[in-house]
Amino acid sequence: MPDPCNEEKQIMAFTDKVVWITGASSGIGEALAYALSKQGSRLILSSRNVQRLGEVKAGCASAGSHLVLPLDLEDSTAFDDAVAQALARFGRIDVLINCGGISQRGLASDTTMETLRKIMETDFFGTVALTKAVLPSMIRNRSGHIVVISSLMGKFSTPLRSGYCASKHALHGYFDALRAELRDKGIRVTIVCPGFIRTGISVNALCADGTCHGVMDEAQARGMSAAACADRILQGLGKGSEEILVGGREILGVYLKRFAPGLLSRIVARSKVT
Length: 274
Fold this sequence. Notes:
- The chain is an alpha/beta fold.
- The chain is built from 10 helices and 11 strands.
- The mean pLDDT is 94.
């Protein structure tokens, strides 16, 4: 049975914390916003979709406590100003949840370099740049938590997602190193690897030529709800986990990659992942 005392400690971990969520207008980011607001966090909600951010804020508990801060992860020149606005409002940033990103559906041989660069700019460089902009205030306070919503594709790769997989693998390399550098500065780093979660990530994915995929993948449609995923993530963060795997049987791919990589390679090569 779950330990009620432990669950209470996990909830208390976010009470009155200032939490900045990118990608907060939909999917996992939106679900995290609702869950954290119920736990008493004060939120900074960012994405490119200002209208949806306002709707998410209105749906959060204690809506007046939160800040809508529009942000485009491809435009890192705006990050220092965004951080200044966040600090002016709240005085500190306790948790940064890097949830914004974009996926891909296209063969590697067909995908244009422009499309690859857009994916890397959004999923990797944007996440790194915002983290670097927030980091000085956390170092001054000797306190903070950086959370990166990666993917199981950051642990192993599947067809039609070469650029997306590359961006997620890059996140693991960068933030694993950053965690080691920050260990004695009071700042934690957690990487979250969701599997098939019922969000619009496949609908909004880029095709090889950069156009919108516009289709909900079958596996995505059958996946875990975003709300359930958010609950799993917060449980892991409350426990202090450095890495959190969330999903169904697709998580087995992580262990096959480690212990039976040849078998995983054969399974992936003949799978119809769409």
